């Protein structure tokens, strides 16, 4: 008896959650920050082949930022024939592989529209079916009209698919409002949080050229000048590019903002050693050891740095 | 499933190769990835602490008891959340309006229910585990 009461309670809650799904629409239609209408009419269009909305949507987003690639080229990278679809994680990975930074944006309708206003098309995942009989679909949001409460997508075989904001919100919410923008290095999404950008850049740098990596971190640090991961990324990119003064500046900036960030001390010490300032390098590494706390891995790395500094000093004192 | 496994093993293999080559070039530099991982872990810890402090509030405790959830169990379940889960839960708490704490509790309630059904936990007497 008690059990069935519980079950009814849960059902009631789930219904409540469902009823809220198309929220957010009123928020954006009454928004004062958004223009009433925007559309990126120059966005290219690649009509999808059977089931292959993933490659088509990705090609649309990449060509929109002047990365020339066709859906046919992307198909082997993102399409899984047995699943007749593309995995979300592979969509992000493939965008990176072609030189774009793929950043997840906050799961809010307002964020999608703000990106469009900023000139960035947004790749979204929708469930056009029901939660219990899903029909997953990737599409690209290219414009909206708040007065008519609708938005436009490059979707499937439709070049300018019109969808009401509330229908979009419902179908999109079923993918937990999954959306990303693909941007060239040096550009940042209008809405993403610092941590999401940092995550995207760490993934991006594995495939990026030295200059692309530096440009990408540089632009992110300009917006978030005290973010530890971004500053470390900027310093490490400069180090790899052989620009020691820039690397030192970035690590010093990291230390100034995060006096207990032992990895920043470690890397600054390494840079100073390359610059042949062994005594200073030694001091900085010692400071790092003082703040390392209980991070055993970083402690070992600092000890290794100190050993290298020691070797250098021994060689040069003879 | 096989494809996922194959993908993961390829990913693992390449990442091992990558770390190998990077370490050979610069022995003592700490990578951005390592810093990012520990920064994200630290954030997960903060998020968990935030959820536990929310759960410790009196009105929340009585809500939990009213729903038949042992508050101590709920706390130990929070400790078991992954960093991602903890942060999504914490952001739900952040976005909840001042009086909306009940919604957040319901969320935890649902997480617990799901893990019950999956057989990871056994908090609700009425669920039948699928394994």
Notes on the structure:
The complex is a heterodimer of chains A (318) and B (131). Mean pLDDT of chain A is 88; it is low at 13-21. Helix content of chain A is 54%, strand content 14%. Chain A is elongated, with a radius of gyration of 24 Å. In chain A, strands 1, 4, 5, 6, 7, 8 and 9 form a 7-stranded antiparallel sheet that branches. A two-stranded antiparallel sheet of chain A has the order 2-3. Chain A is an alpha+beta fold and 318 residues long. Chain B is mainly alpha-helical and 131 residues long. Helix content of chain B is 74%, strand content 0%. Chain B is flat and about 50 Å long. The chains are: A alpha+beta (318), B mainly alpha (131). Chains A and B meet through helix 1, helix 8, helix 10, helix 12 and helix 14 of A and helix 2 and helix 6 of B.
Average residue pLDDT of chain B: 63
Largest sheet of chain B: none
- Round the Cα radius of gyration of chain B to an integer and report it: 20 Å
Sheet-strand content of chain A, in percent, reads 5-15%
Stretches of chain A where pLDDT is under 50 for at least 5 consecutive residues are 13-21
- SSE-based structural type of chain B: mainly alpha
Average pLDDT reading of chain A: 88
Most extensive chain contact? A-B, 34 and 24 residues
Percent of residues in helices of chain B: over 70%
Any idea what the shape of chain B is? flat
Catalogue the unreliable spans of chain B: 19-26
Order of helices and strands of chain A: HHEHHEEHEHEEEEHEHHHHHHH
* Strand runs of chain B, count: 0
> What general outline of chain A do the C-alpha atoms trace?
elongated
Strand content of chain B: under 5%
Q: Distance between termini of chain B? A: 19 Å
Question: What structural class is derived from the secondary structure elements of chain A?
Answer: alpha+beta
Query: How many DSSP helices of chain B?
Result: 6
The end-to-end distance of chain A, rounded to whole angstroms, is 87 Å
User: What kind of sheet is the major sheet of chain A?
Assistant: 7 strands, antiparallel
Gyration radius of chain A, rounded: 24 Å
């Amino acid at each position: 008896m008690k059990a069935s009461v519980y079950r009814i309670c849960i059902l009631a809650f789930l219904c409540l959650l469902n009823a809220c799904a198309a929220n957010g629409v009123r928020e954006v239609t009454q928004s004062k920050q958004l223009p009433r209408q925007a559309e990126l009419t120059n966005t290219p269009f690649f009509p999808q082949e059977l089931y292959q909305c993933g490659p088509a949507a990705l090609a649309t987003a990449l060509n929109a930022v002047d990365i020339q690639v066709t859906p046919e080229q992307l198909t082997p990278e993102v399409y899984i024939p047995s699943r007749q679809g593309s995995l979300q994680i592979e969509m992000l990975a493939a965008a990176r592989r072609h030189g774009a930074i793929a950043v997840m944006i906050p799961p809010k309708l307002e964020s999608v529209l703000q990106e469009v206003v900023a000139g960035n098309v947004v790749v979204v995942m929708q469930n056009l079916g029901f939660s219990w009989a899903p029909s997953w679909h990737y599409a690209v949001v290219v414009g909206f009209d708040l007065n008519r409460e609708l938005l436009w997508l490059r979707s499937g075989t439709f070049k300018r698919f019109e969808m009401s904001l509330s229908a979009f919100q419902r179908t999109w919410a079923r993918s937990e409002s999954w959306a990303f923008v693909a941007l060239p290095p040096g550009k940042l999404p209008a809405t993403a949080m610092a941590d999401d950008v940092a995550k995207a850049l760490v993934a991006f740098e594995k495939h990026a050229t030295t200059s692309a990596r530096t440009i990408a971190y540089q632009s992110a640090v300009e917006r978030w000048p005290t973010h530890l991961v971004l500053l470390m990324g900027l310093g490490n990119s400069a180090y790899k590019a052989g620009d020691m003064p820039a690397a030192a500046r970035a690590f010093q900036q990291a230390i100034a903002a995060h006096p207990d960030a032992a990895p920043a001390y470690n890397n600054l010490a390494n840079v100073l050693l390359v610059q042949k300032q062994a005594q200073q390098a030694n001091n900085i590494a010692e400071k790092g050891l003082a703040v390392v706390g209980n991070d055993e891995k970083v402690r070992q790395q600092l000890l290794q740095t100190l050993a290298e500094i020691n070797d250098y000093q021994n060689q040069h004192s003879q | 499933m096989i494809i996922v496994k194959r993908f993961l093993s390829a990913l693992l293999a390449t990442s091992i190769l990558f770390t190998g080559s990077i370490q050979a070039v610069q022995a003592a530099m700490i990578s951005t990835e390592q810093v990012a991982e520990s920064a994200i872990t630290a954030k997960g810890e903060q998020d968990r602490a935030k959820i536990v402090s929310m759960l410790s509030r009196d009105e929340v405790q009585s809500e939990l008891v009213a729903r038949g959830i042992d508050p101590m169990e709920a706390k130990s379940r929070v400790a078991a959340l992954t960093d991602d889960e903890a942060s999504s839960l914490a952001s739900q708490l952040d976005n909840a309006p001042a009086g909306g704490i009940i919604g957040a509790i319901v969320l935890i309630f649902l997480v617990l229910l799901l893990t019950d059904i999956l057989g990871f936990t056994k908090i609700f007497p009425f669920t039948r585990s699928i394994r």
